[in-house]
Amino acid sequence: MDYALNDLDIKILQLLRKDAKIVLKDIAKELGSKPSTIHNRLKKLEESGVILKHTIDLNLDYVGYNLSSFVMLKYDKKATDMSQEEVAKVIGNIKRVQEVHLISGEFDMILKVRAKSIADLGDFVTKELKDLDGIHGSRTYISLKSIKVTNQGPFVIDLIE
């Protein structure tokens, strides 16, 4: 985390956030720079860990996992030799689990989970999760409608001046 973003980096990131498929030539033209300069900056952004990966954002309705839910879990250290973080990592390796967060409060973890249906979600919670050592209690919430969904908090780049 010792890489300092400069103005050009921020502008490149803002353009990529709007259109990840934009080509170097178009970024250079938009920013009044040479394609080789943009290429070098992108390479540095990747090597330094600012840009973690290039990916796509799938419309999950088309791939069958359109039910979004949040599952709160209680960790039971007496029921496992694993730490809470180790249990969370095991859960994070389950493909349908999009996010795992350790939280404070009544529950110890919150998961963002995708399922094909309520029955599919029910099977996941009652069979896969309940069988894991270290889990003691859960509460599941089903998303009725998503108002804002993002995988990278695009506002962050826009806040940098």
Write a short abstract of this structure.
This protein has helices at residues 7-18, 24-31, 35-47, 60-63, 84-92, 118-129, 155-159, and strands at residues 67-75, 97-102, 109-115, 135-142.
**Whole-number total of structural domains:** 2
Question: What's the multimeric state?
Answer: single chain
What ranges have pLDDT less than 50 throughout 5 or more consecutive residues? none
The count of DSSP E runs of length 2 or more, i.e. the number of strands, is 4
CATH architecture of the largest domain: 2-Layer Sandwich
| Assigned CATH class of the largest domain | Alpha Beta
Please summarize the sheet with the most strands.
4 strands, antiparallel
Distance between the termini: 19 Å
Portion of residues in helices?
Answer: 25-40%
Strand order of the largest sheet: 2-3-1-4
Q: How much strand?
A: 15-25%
H-E string: HHHHEHEEHEH
Gross morphology: elongated
The CATH superfamily name of the largest domain is Lrp/AsnC effector binding domain/regulation of amino acid metabolism (RAM) domain
Mean pLDDT across residues: 89
Query: What would you call the structural class?
Result: alpha+beta
